[in-house]
Amino acid sequence: MMDQSVFPDPTYRDTVLAPLFDGVKAHYAGHMAAINRAHLVMLAETGILGSGDAGAIAAALRDIDAEVDLDALSYTGEVEDYFFLVEAELKRRLGDLGGALHTARSRNDMDHTLFKLALRGRVSVLLEQALTLTEALITKAEAEKATLIVAYTHGQPAQPTTWGHYLGAVIEVLLRDIARLNAAADGLEHCPMGAAAITTSGFPIDRGRVAELLGFDGPLVNSYGCIASVDYVTGLYSAMKLMFLHLGRVIQDMQFWTAFEVGQLYVPNSLVQISSIMPQKRNPVPIEHLRHLASATVGQCDAIVGVMQNTPFTDMNDSEGEVQQLGYAAFERGARVLQLLTALIPACRVNADRVRRTTDAACITITELADTLVRDEGLTFRAAHEIAAATAKAVIADGTALGDGFSAFSAAFETLTGRTPRLDETAFRTAVAPETFVARRDRIGGPGEAALREALAEYAAEAGTAREARAERENRHKTAEQRLKSAFDALLVKD
User: Is 73 helix (H, G, I), strand (E, B) or coil?
Assistant: First the structure.
């Protein structure tokens, strides 16, 4: 049977090839130019191409970059994709020599190199934003070391702590998320170039030199893995997913704390919107935007990882082109979350009056009363727990503050022990004060002043280490840009 059809089919052109072409224009053209230059330098330095031919190709690449109006390009179907457009331009200017640039490489190794280059910059920006948020949280936690809040478990008032202590927990998780993201960024630092289609090349290529010129830490060793392994994608988006999943839980707390019935957290007017019909309302809607943006980021990360599920361990379009571009929206939304949180949390303040009322109404310091009875009255914890429980039940029934419940405590103590307590009313009030509760929990990880101060110092040091890791990669990338420019310009001089 004779096939008279002509590539590309119009529908395939419009639904697949044209969007891919536009994607390359938007995200990869500059990276492709860098790969072309680095590969050409390597071909010349290894003697695979003579200096004259390399110089001519270098001049043509320079002219193409200067003369081709990328924005004006539209996909016509005359060539398969942007790669072949550049090759066609080279051949138009150099004749058959224009095809020599593709010696010892494939679009397989080029594609994954392009994708890593595109992800590298995005990850670096996201890490910077996450570190900026971390540092803002550390500063806020230090300022709020003594600011009492109500800690909730199962949606119920549980114990007093400080806002600084709560933020410390957030910081710890965020630092672990940053460590995972830094590790994922390191996974982008090995260059696939030189793998060619699958098995490297019969030419004496220098893979390390290309990796160096493109700012990678070195080549990705196994050539099959260069074109088949997508863990640099799945690892990255998994790390991103966890960061925004975890931040989403904090955002949900903020939503709860700002509810009228709780009222523990005050959002300033600059971040509050009003109802169009109910003039009394203060709606902290940035929190809602944070919640849906964080959730959308998680969903987009899941989508990328999900596409990779049950795909063959080989080169495939499932990990390329449009899938890669789909993931970039996760970076955009994630960045908005980090930026807004960095502005919002430092601007908020705790409503001390509401915290005090909830503390009194819910008897959340009663655990310290039980502890005090063990220390000062020589009771077992279980006996102390029963007295504390009876005391709390009585004051809640009377609608009085725990600090005013000495008589209820004395009655419960005498009923259980058969004697009067050694604690007087002043000592009782001290024992059940939230300030006492916090101060006595000055252990590693606790809200006490010394423990929290030490923890925050450790967090700051850890953030500094993470920032240094990011900076090291950034410096290598910038140095490589200059190195590539010098090596490429040297080819032009030889021309």
Answer: coil
For residue 40, what are the CA distances in angstroms to 51, 54, 116, 209, 492?
10, 7, 20, 11, 11
Strands 156-162, 148-153: pairing kind: antiparallel
Residue of 430, 380, 384, 388 lying closest to 409 (CA atoms): 388
> How many residues appear in the chain?
495
Total H helices, total E strands in the chain: 19, 6
Tokens matching residue 63? 């002219």
Tokens of 334: 């994630």
In this predicted structure, what is the pLDDT of residue 256? 96
Q: Are the CB atoms for 366 and 402 separated by under 8 Å?
A: yes
Tokens for 455, please give them: 């923890």
How many angstroms separate the CA atoms of 106 and 137, rounded? Answer: 47
Tokens 């495939």 found at: 316
37-81 pLDDT, tens digit per residue, is 999 999 999 999 999 999 999 999 999 999 998 888 888 888 888
Q: What is the pTM of this model?
A: 0.94
Q: Are 362 and 157 in contact (CB under 8 A)?
A: yes
According to DSSP, the β-strands at 190-191 and 218-219 are: parallel
User: Which tokens in the block code for residue 379?
Assistant: 């009771």
